[in-house]
Amino acid sequence: MKTADRARIACLLAWLAPGAGHLFLGRRVRAAVFFVIVLTTFSLGLAFDGKPSVVDRRQPILSWLQVFANVGTGPVEALARERIFGKLAYQLPPEDAGAEPHSDVGVELRRRTESPRTPYGTAYLWTAGLMNILLILDAFDIAMGRKP
User: Most Cβ neighbours (<10 Å): which of 4, 50, 79, 124?
Assistant: First the structure.
């Protein structure tokens, strides 16, 4: 298998499940540790009423970066988002741009914002995604032979 193909597969697997890229590359212990760390961090984020980020037209750059951090966790993030909002919502609906939310997404975001644990939970969710993005890059470097 070509090095570039191996790197692509490792990156895709690493995004699909934390640690899966390292497992594919034969790094079993690292894979298990990374899996536990990322999913524990993500689970703590959910347990602390973490707020999955949505793109907000009022803060486009910051909100895109926050969504990017969330999506870094992989498909598990989409499953959690589906459970929290009742659908895959990645953008704040236009009717929620005012002071009072009207959509299910806006109401749930408001509820989570009112929880005193939300800042911690949200930080855990972002951290899990950003850690996994770094692990994807680590798997890429290993597959390309840049890292032993």
Answer: 50
Nearest Cα neighbor of 91 from 105, 76, 75 is 105
For the stretch 131-140, pLDDT in tens is: 999 999 999 9
> Which positions of the chain have pLDDT values less than 70?
98
Q: Cα-atom radius of gyration of the chain, to the nearest Å?
A: 17
Three-class secondary structure of residue 18 per DSSP: coil
3-class secondary-structure state, position 91: strand
The predicted model scores a pTM of 0.91
**What is the domain extent for residue 72?**
3-144
| Per-residue pLDDT, 113 | 87
Q: What is the DSSP string of 26-89?
A: T-HHHHHHHHHHHHHHHHHHHHTT-----B-TTSHHHHHHHHHHHHTT-HHHHHHHHHHHSS--
Burial of 147 (0-12, 13-18, 19+ CB in 10 A): exposed
> What is the total count of domains within the chain?
1
Query: Which residues contact residue 135 at a Cβ distance below 8 angstroms, ignoring those fewer than 6 apart?
Result: 14, 18, 19, 21, 22, 34, 38
